[in-house]
Specification:
29% helix; ComK; Competence protein ComK
């Protein structure tokens, strides 16, 4: 992956067919599959496995739900919706430059003046962002 093109987030899109949007700083890529299949594919491309990455993060962070996943030194993604939620998001903690509360929603700001508004409380997004940054520091020691 080009170092100028960073992964920002994954998002499930519900329509006539299920697909996953992978948003980068400069472009978007659409995978014609579920978010879980997309994550497995992205990890395999980086010679990683979803179960191993999940287990490692659980052990390092001592958490059980909404586990961040380390992909590489530019991407540690964290889920902000329950696994059974129809619309899923995985946000790259390393590309967030700020978050802001807006009533019951949270605005997540990225590089290149990109942002998304998610229907998740600020305090939850902030906690998961901090856990992901902690994971990044602990794994890169």
């Amino acid at each position: 992956m080009n170092h100028l093109t960073k992964l920002l987030y994954f998002k499930t899109v519900i329509g006539p067919e299920l697909f996953t949007i992978c948003q980068y700083t400069t472009h978007q890529f659409i995978y014609p599959t579920s978010i879980n299949q997309t994550l497995k594919y992205i990890l395999e491309v980086n010679q990683l496995s979803l179960p191993i990455q999940t287990k490692q993060a659980k052990e390092v962070l001592k958490i059980r739900k909404h586990i961040p996943i380390s992909i590489n030194q530019q991407a540690i993604i964290f889920p902000i919706k329950p696994k059974r939620s129809p619309i899923q998001y995985y946000i790259n903690a390393l590309t967030i430059i700020g978050i802001k509360s807006k009533e019951t929603q949270t605005i997540i700001y990225f590089e290149n003046a990109t942002f998304i508004t998610v229907d998740v409380p600020y305090i939850f997004v902030h906690k998961k962002w901090q856990e992901s940054l902690t994971l990044s520091r602990l794994l890169n020691k």
